[in-house]
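<goal> How does this chain fold?
<body> The protein record starts here
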Amino acid sequence: MSTIQPPDQWTTGQDPMTNKQAAFLDKLAHDKHVDVDMENINKAQASELIDDLKSGRVSNDSDEPAKPSEPIADPQKWSTGGEPATQKQKAYIAVLEKKAGEGVHDASELTKTDASERIEDLRAKTGA
């Protein structure tokens, strides 16, 4: 099984974001009515911010540019929370477990809600 590295570990993650990333990020920010500081964003940061905008994990309650934040809804209340975890969730859990120094656990039985909560716990442990 191949593991997906988090954007901050990409070889080219520190390079300036691509034109396609900039265009997509600009469109998402416009559609979500979120202010995004487009200056000095690298590929890794752009990728993470795109993921956060797409998933709704962005808060713009201040004058600061958008940054990753908590999910907008409690995972326990998701209408699809009982469905099996996505492949992306499972892969991200494996990456975070390695980063946290934990053994990689079988995530095949996790629901979307369980996976989301596990990801939140691992992100808190790793600072990701």
